[in-house]
């Protein structure tokens, strides 16, 4: 069987496939051919030559970077096998955000699966993670790759938010959520829980929420959280309402325009109390778009690859766990990837 490093190689620009002559999620500079796992900006950049990805990811990239974000694009549905210079490539749901995919490459009998970012629990805005059978080399993220990260059930955290809305009906609930993926997920969870009232959104969310709507994910009654009229009457109209915005919006004075704002933040990082306290978060919601420690280790056991490669986050702990289980494992040390979708 082919040596793994002859099929995928970690480089400063990202994982490179020499026989196929393409990169997976290149983030440092433009490349001629890129296969993109999902639309977060630390994985999907504009300016490449040819980009292959799921149609929803291409729509997200167009919304973020403009219609001409690449010289050419190719939309590939989940399970559709594409030949690139003799290398078979296909996408499988990753469960991270809308359009997110694991990328499997197969060549000369070697099958390698790159997860990008993923999670295992239910998300009403995207297809659920599916393990890829027969994977020889499994390339896993490790954003929350420490045993301390064991996220509570999403239903528990949403119930906390709904209780606060009911218990403090005169306050404006300002929930920080990453603009792509988390914000739309929070909106959809609220709708499924019966919250049919208008939800006010920051301008940074408008185009991306429209992409989700176009993909068949209903957002309900969304209204702009703008306040051109700064009169007391205009401000009072937000009392008792839910406002969703990127987390950075609440670090300045933006949230203070709303009456008696109650600041929340939906992120797996809210399990770290110091982060919540330092950010002035009154209502930390531990809702993550990444796999926690148990999901990471359970997934490796389920896929049961010949070798585990680990990237994006707490690599050493997951590699150490794998080796204690008698598995072959190595860290990739890729750089340039951030915590945009905690």
From TrEMBL:
NCBIfam families associated with the record: Xnuc_lig_assoc
PANTHER family membership: BLL1145 PROTEIN (PTHR11203:SF49), CLEAVAGE AND POLYADENYLATION SPECIFICITY FACTOR FAMILY MEMBER (PTHR11203)
Protein name per UniProt = Uncharacterized protein
Molecular functions (GO terms):
RNA endonuclease activity
Instruction: Give the species this sequence originates from.
Output: Hyphomonas adhaerens MHS-3
